[in-house]
Design goal:
alpha+beta; Endonuclease I-creI; 4 helices; 39% helix
Length: 109
């Protein structure tokens, strides 16, 4: 008996930063807010299929990356934010390394 598409997607798991980097390239985004003496960076991912975001959230949390509570945006589409501060810095470094970007070209240094 073969699984339906939704059953296969529900079972999808992320176990490698390269998978998350690829997903972020397609459905991720970053916002920058200029403060008085600091630039705030915020990463988030949006997907119509909530189990997909839950799998990404689970992987990030297992790697010690703090994520925000998912909430729905326009049209009920779920959005996952990556926690501010160290969570975003750690995630950024892992995503850069997964893409093969030299570690000395870090965004947060």
């Amino acid at each position: 008996m073969s699984l339906t598409f939704n059953e296969r997607m529900t079972d999808s798991q992320y176990d490698d930063w390269r998978q998350v980097a690829g997903y972020f390239d397609g459905d991720g985004s970053s916002d920058f807010k200029i403060g008085k003496r600091v630039v705030f960076v915020r990463f988030h991912m949006v997907d119509n299929y909530r189990p997909q975001l839950e799998a990404v959230k689970s992987f990030l949390n297992s790697q010690g990356i703090r994520t925000e509570t998912m909430h729905d945006i326009t049209g009920g589409t779920p959005k996952l934010g990556i926690g501010q501060g160290e969570g975003e810095e750690d995630a950024s470094l892992h995503l850069q390394e997964a893409r093969g970007i030299a570690s000395h070209s870090r965004l947060f240094r």
